[in-house]
Amino acid sequence: MHRVFRSICLAVAVLSTCALHAEDWPQFRGPNCSGISTTTATLPVEFSETEHVLWSDEIGEGVGSPVIAAGRLFVTAMVDKETVGLLAFDAKTGKPIWKQTWKTGPLAEVHETNSHASTTPAADADHVYVYFPTMGMLAFDAATGAQLWEKKLPVPFFVFKWGPAMSPVLYKDLVIFCQDDDLAPAIYALNKETGEIVWMDDRSDMAVNYSHPVICETDQGDELVVAGTGKLIGYDPNNGERLWYAKVLLRNIKTTPVCQNGTIYISLQSGGIANQWLATADQAETGNSDGKLTREEMQGFVGETKIPESFFKKTFERGDKNKDGFLEGEELDYAFLHPDNFAGARFDAEEAGDQFVLAVRGGGRGDVTDSHVLWKHKTKYTDHIVSPFVHDGRMFLIKGGGITTVFDTEEGKVLRRAKRISNTSEYFASPIYGDGKIYLAGENGFVVVLADGPDYEILAKNDMGDSIVGTPAIAEGRLYIRTRTKLICVGDE
User: Fold this and answer.
1) Is the pTM above the cut of 0.85?
2) Which Pfam families match (predicted)?
């Protein structure tokens, strides 16, 4: 009897612990990168940089999102121009718990919208994991900040100067990290406890992408789904085997899919590679606008950072078929996309870019392009960065200018005409949801709150006083907003 009672107590303790952490927001865009919180607490509607603020902190410049696990919040920031930090706070009180900082070493120029503190940590009750391009992946004790391990990874290179922006995600005992850069695109699965590589997939058939891996639950078991150049790929998360692919995507993708009930939902927009190179290098002040691309024009566009010779070998030498020192016409396509995986608008396309919404059923094997694509529709107002919000049978999208569109998830039908919300800002943060409300954070610092329903009624427009690029987080009835320089916790308590 004593043994039975002890077992019951242990089970209750385990369940209590699970319940305590059920509302964690452990990685980019929360559980499975979905943007959906399971909170049952009331979330705030009206707030600002001074109203309903439970705590705030001047953490430093950055665009990485905050994450919350077991009552602790973690976020990255540039402490100064040469120092990056990982900061830990008590999520309820805002009390600093610990802080780790490192000298970054030489850093390449990145786009003004981005930041060198662009990564979002991933955390569980015991550990927090963070990536920085010049250091690789690092793990820390969540309670004390003690470093547990460090795993060096290839330093990425981005010729268009978009810069690093990928973050780790967690699956069982693995830390998953995908980095589709211009030199060594790959996905890694690291052991949580040791940092050792459990498996790695060479993604040399990919161009640059910024799409996070997500888990799709199927009758055949869990699949790790990663979007990339041309292909949506389903991996075996245990060993990295490519189980299936659907050839349905474009040249690159910066949005992250959403998985629900065995189906993967995607929104994307992308331009052709030939058009982008001619527009950014040949037609730049350092180019001559002759419709051809040279090494010198490429280097002139990039500026002081020297383009690695390995990049020229991988691209320019492959594309320059007649060896005349120029890339022209279809040579541009050959140069910058893998010969076995061309995707997107070609050099002679009338339209320089494409955009779609689509749904793919998981659980296939091999080439599932014809068998598992449920629907795919061209669109007009699809953003290239902001990920979709999928809930209650609807896919909701927002793009720059505050333009929203809505599709049904069964067939992808348009449910209403494009509609502009009352905040005509650029958008980089993705929608998040909790307590029946959708939060849309604009780059101009305003957070619009919508009711989650067919009409998406606007409930409030809240001024946070500083630019917002990172996606906010939700936990325990609170909204955590990372502005360009601050961390602000708002709630109705």
Assistant:
1) yes
2) PQQ_2
Integer Cα distance of 155 and 183 in angstroms:
9
Q: Cα dist. 98→90, 95, 367, 481 in Å?
A: 10, 9, 48, 20
User: Cα 328 to chain center, whole Å?
Assistant: 33
In the chain, the amino acid numbered 182 is D
Q: b or e along 343-361 (b: 16 or more beta carbons within 10 Å of the residue's beta carbon)?
A: bbbbbeeeebbbbbbbbbb
Pairing of strands 366-367, 242-247: parallel
- Token pair belonging to 105: 């070493």
DSSP secondary structure string, 295-336? HHHHHHHH-SSPPPHHHHHHTHHHH-TT-SS-B-THHHHHHH
Per-position DSSP letters for 123-160, written without gaps between them = E-SSEEEEEETTTEEEEEETTT--EEEEE--PPP--TT
What does pLDDT average to in each consecutive run of 10 residues of the chain (493 residues)? 38 38 89 96 97 98 97 96 96 98 89 92 98 96 98 96 95 98 97 98 97 97 98 98 98 97 98 94 94 96 93 96 96 95 93 95 98 97 97 98 98 96 96 98 98 97 98 97 98 88
Pairing of strands 389-391, 136-141: unpaired
Among residues 424, 458, 423, the alpha carbon closest in space to that of 438 is found at 458
Q: Which domains does the chain have, with CATH numbers?
A: 64-210 (2.40.128.630), 274-336 (1.10.238)
Q: How many other C-beta atoms lie within 10 A of the C-beta of residue 309?
A: 10
Alpha-carbon distance of 226 to 247, in angstroms, equals 12
Angle at 449 between CA 444 and CA 452, to 5 degrees: 140
Residues whose CB is less than 8 angstroms from the CB of residue 415 and which lie 6 or more positions away in sequence, other chains included: 394, 406, 407, 408, 454
Q: How many beta carbons lie within 10 A of that of residue 430, not counting itself?
A: 26
Please, are residues 438 and 396 in contact by the beta-carbon 8 Å criterion?
yes
